[in-house]
Amino acid sequence: MVTPAEAAAAVRHHYDVGDDFYALWLDRSMTYSCAMPDSPDDTLDAAQDRKLRFHLDAIGDARHVLDVGCGWGSVLQRLSGRGARAVGLTLSPRQAAYVGSRGYPGVSVRIEHWLHHEPAAPYDGIVSIGAFEHFAAPGDDKVAVYRDFFTRCRGWLREEGVLSLQTIAYANMSATDASEFMRQEIFPDADLPTLAEITAAAEGIFEVQSVHNGRMAYAWTCEQWARRLRARRAEAIEVAGREVVARYERYLKLSALGFRMGKIGLLRIVLRPYRNGFFR
């Protein structure tokens, strides 16, 4: 699997380009994952808010929540706003500092890999958006890596808890067809899961309650990001440099194309732990 040190290096490579750079083309909540538009003319802000509500609705009225891969804290902000206690895990010092500077009541952020997480008390809900696809490296026994994650999540959750997971996945493409540019320049050391690998890894640990395919939603999201980056290209070059901007423009274009062609997909999966092997 991707070791904690390798994962941290990959995260720094991608996210430590700078908060100011991402703020130019993400939505106001700084949510860097697939949105949920309800029409082609939807706004990015509204579509991202709808996605966040999807995951929060999935975990219900959970009062103690873990966010694995918390990013710039859009889920944590909403949890704080409804009076929940929340812990966010990130491997980016920049993101941790950003969330910490907001002073959200009831929220703590740890620069910590999920392998090292030891909660002080069980969680009512776990949310993980856009982190799962970075857990395994090419050549890994991916099912074993994912099963380790699910086993740990099961141990962290109360019996009535819920895990709401969002991940990019291979669709009509295998790992051997993956873009070397994406692997080397954008997401080093990452290998996407397939739906079959995820369900095999969860078998006997979590019941899959629902699966949503957001492939076209992610194509739309990447196109929105690309349009916003183009509109502020001069500012982006000042902040991050011409080479970085060109790399992100290529990445967003290739991603949107991959989703539209069905090479990659976007899965939103809601899972509930089995209780001693059976539901009561």
From TrEMBL:
InterPro entries: CFA/CMAS, CMAS, SAM-dependent_MTases_sf. Pfam families: CMAS (PF02353). Keywords: Lipid metabolism, Methyltransferase, S-adenosyl-L-methionine, Transferase. It comes from Amycolatopsis tucumanensis. Belongs to the CFA/CMAS family. It comes from the Bacteria. This is Cyclopropane-fatty-acyl-phospholipid synthase family protein.
